[in-house]
Amino acid sequence: MSAPHDPFELSARRLTLDLARRGTEFFGCELQGLTDDELDGDSLLPGWTRRQVVAHVASNARAIGRLAQWADTGAETVMYASMEARNAEIVAGSILSSDALRESWADSAADLDRRWLALADDRWVVPVRNGQGAMVPLRDTIWMRTRELWIHAVDLNHGAGFRDLPEEALERLLGEIVGAWAARGDTGRRLTATDSTHTGYGDPDAAHQVTGSLADLAAWAAGRARSGVTSDAGETPVAPRWL
């Protein structure tokens, strides 16, 4: 277990918390720009309306708040009792009136931030169970929330794109996605951003090279777009599954 007062850990956690709070503001701005009628329109997620995306992000805040409660009290409190419970929570949120849905989202975000602020430093290293069933230190859930906010703000399909995400979020997201591919034995490609000093993502000796701007690569790898990305294998393929 890491030392709870390690300066590097504290600094890294504060930076990620800041990125999460900026993501909350960004998502909120995108939501505020939607009319009530537009909430019923299509998101970028197949089969989901914008209001379903908002309900999901609100539900996610409550789920991560339950993990913060677990770390704080020591009593196991899972994100969701089951996948069915998760889905039911999203459905219940999505059928709220537009005003109630906006309020639900704002309240869930504020409640999570209050829980984070109230946590003692030594609680952030307490192991909790993530959505995939793995035990991770609570501090990892900050990034879980951060990526939800930034990516789903784009999924609201109201003009925001991956180009609007901070560089540090894009770099971390790409590293995570390529790492997930590698963990499944999928190491056949190397991703190189044309506008970044980062040396690249994936095996340098991979059979295929995929290039594009940092934002375009992240959008492609996350399964949101294919434009702006080129592959030395010819036509740019659909990115492998991530989560």
Automatic annotation (TrEMBL):
The keyword Cell wall biogenesis/degradation appears for this protein: no
Species source reads Cryobacterium sandaracinum
A Gene Ontology molecular function term for this protein is:
isomerase activity
Q: Report whether Isomerase shows up as a keyword of the record.
A: yes
- Superkingdom of this protein's organism: Bacteria
Q: Which SUPFAM superfamilies match?
A: DinB/YfiT-like putative metalloenzymes (SSF109854), SCP-like (SSF55718)
Recall the taxonomic lineage recorded for the source organism. Bacteria, Bacillati, Actinomycetota, Actinomycetes, Micrococcales
Keyword list, A-Z: Isomerase
Domain MDMPI C-terminal, residue spans: 164-241
Q: Where is the Mycothiol-dependent maleylpyruvate isomerase metal-binding domain?
A: 23-156
Among Pfam families, the record links this protein to:
MDMPI_C, MDMPI_N
Q: Which residues form the signal peptide?
A: none
Q: How is this protein named in the record?
A: Maleylpyruvate isomerase family mycothiol-dependent enzyme
- InterPro entries per record: DinB/YfiT-like, Maleyloyr_isom, MDMPI_C-term_domain, MDMPI_metal-binding, SCP2_sterol-bd_dom_sf
